[in-house]
Every structure is written in structure tokens, then in C-alpha cells.
Design brief:
By secondary structure, this protein is α/β, with parallel strands linked by helices. Helix content is 28%, strand content 27%. The relative contact order is 0.17.
Length: 180
């Protein structure tokens, strides 16, 4: 019987830890390093290989989350916290920047950030894309339940939930009639 009590206590502790430890803490650390002030949602964006065209020309397109081209979108092309080009997309969402060399670049369009490894013409790996696709995602609109999420950010509410998760099973266990 004492073992069952220890097992129950261990299960309760593990359940509480599972609720308290954020899942991001359990994920492996990202291998790439990116300028964190431009990364969104604390995620490291994937590096995309893109082939430059003659004259160091980068071609690309800006689209929204549904794939619709975004006309007139300003883009900033940066390398190591230094802006090397500023362009605006045309009516079909296409853009072009010239005079670039191979290397790692960030392309910022509104809230969107992409990390691209640009390759000089005829030196790119076969998997490199012919142009950069920048997807500008709109703000997510949550349903009616978004007010509940605000409550779940309060540490006192979380502490109350954890206390209830511990106290209720203990109270149920203690209220059960004991058979000898």
C-alpha cells in the first residue's frame, strides 16, 4: 500500500511538471543563429538557398498567407544588421535588387522575415531556388474564446489550477472508505 502512495505522489508531481514546463523548453536548440530582434515568435527561420542572376540580381515575390501577390510592399534586404538594399514590389508582388554578392541575407517585408543564402550565378547547389518567396502572414484572429487565453497568462490562475489538480485527487482519495 505504501508503494501505491508513492506511485500516486510521483504521478501527481510528473503531471504538475508537465503542465508547468513549456513545450519549447523540451525542443532541441536550433542550430542556426539569427538576429533575434527580427525573428518572430522566438523561432529561428529556416535558411533558404537562392540563386542570384547575372549582375548580382535577386528576384523574388511577396505574397500573403493565401498566396495572393502583395503590390507596393516595401522590402529591406539586410546583411549583418546593415541594410544593403531597399526595394518595393510591383503590381504582381515581384521585386528585384541588383548589386548583391553571395552570402547570408535577411529580407524583411512588414512583420515577415526570411533568411536567405544567396549564391553567385552558376555556383548554387541544385536545390537552390531561382528567386525568393516572401510570405507576409496577417495577424491571426482568434475566436470568441480569446478572453480565456488572457486568464491563462495570469500566474495566480495557473497556481490555482495546479493547486486544484493536486488537492482534488488527494481529497477524493482521503474521502474513499477504507477496507481492511
Amino acid at each position: 500500500m505504501k508503494r501505491m502512495g508513492v506511485l500516486k505522489a510521483g504521478a501527481i508531481v510528473l503531471a504538475c511538471l508537465g503542465m508547468l514546463v513549456p513545450t519549447a523548453a523540451l525542443e532541441p536548440a536550433a542550430a542556426a543563429s539569427v538576429d533575434s530582434k527580427h525573428a518572430t515568435n522566438d523561432q529561428v527561420p529556416a535558411v533558404i538557398d537562392v540563386t542570384l542572376h547575372d549582375g548580382g540580381t535577386l528576384r523574388g515575390q511577396v505574397v500573403d498567407a493565401q498566396g495572393k501577390p502583395l503590390a507596393g510592399s516595401p522590402l529591406s534586404i539586410r546583411q549583418i544588421d546593415r541594410e544593403v538594399a531597399r526595394v518595393v514590389s510591383d503590381q504582381s508582388g515581384y521585386f528585384q535588387a541588383t548589386g548583391l554578392r553571395g552570402g547570408m541575407y535577411q529580407i524583411l517585408a512588414g512583420e515577415a522575415t526570411g533568411v536567405y543564402r544567396l549564391w553567385a550565378p552558376r555556383t548554387a547547389p541544385p536545390s537552390a531556388q531561382p528567386g525568393a518567396l516572401v510570405v507576409v502572414a496577417g495577424k491571426q484572429v482568434l475566436g470568441q474564446g480569446h478572453r480565456v487565453l488572457c486568464w491563462l497568462r495570469n500566474p495566480w490562475v495557473i497556481a490555482g489550477i495546479v493547486a486544484a489538480a493536486i488537492a482534488i485527487p488527494v481529497a477524493i482519495h482521503n474521502a474513499e472508505p477504507r477496507s481492511k
